[in-house]
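Exercise 7.
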Amino acid sequence: MNTGSNEPGVAAAIDGEKAEQPLGSRAPAFVQARKTLHLSWQVGVFIVGFAVVAAGIVMLPLPGPGWLVIFGGMAIWATEFVWAQLVLRWTKRKVTEAAQRALDPKVRRRNIILTTIGLVIVAVLVAVYVWKFGLEMPWKIKE
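Solution. The predicted structure, written as C-alpha cells, is:
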C-alpha cells in the first residue's frame, strides 16, 4: 500500500508496522544548540542513569525489582545515548521473541509438565523429611 507520504515511518505505521524512533539525543532543541549545555545535559543524564542502574544491581540479590530498575536506568540513558538505544532495541526484540516462543502450545505443555514434575519431587522430599524428623527445624535436629 503506497501512502504517498515522504515522511519516514508514516507508511510503515499506516501498514500496521511499528515505526522505530530515530537514534540520537532527545534533548530539547535549545539544549542541543549549545555545545556546553548539551555536554552538561549528557553528563547529568549519564549520572542519573548510572545511579538508577547501580540501584538495580544492588536490588538483584536484595528484595526489589532489580531487573526492572536496571532497564529503567537503561531507558534513561537511551534518551541521550545511541548505544543505550541499540541495547534497548535488542532487549525488546529478544523479550518479544521469548514471549512468542513461550506461547507456543508445545513449549507451554513441556513447561507445565516440567513444573509439575519439579513440584512432585519437592513434595516427596518434604514428606520424607517430615516423616523422618517431624516438624523440627533442620538446625535443631540432634541426630
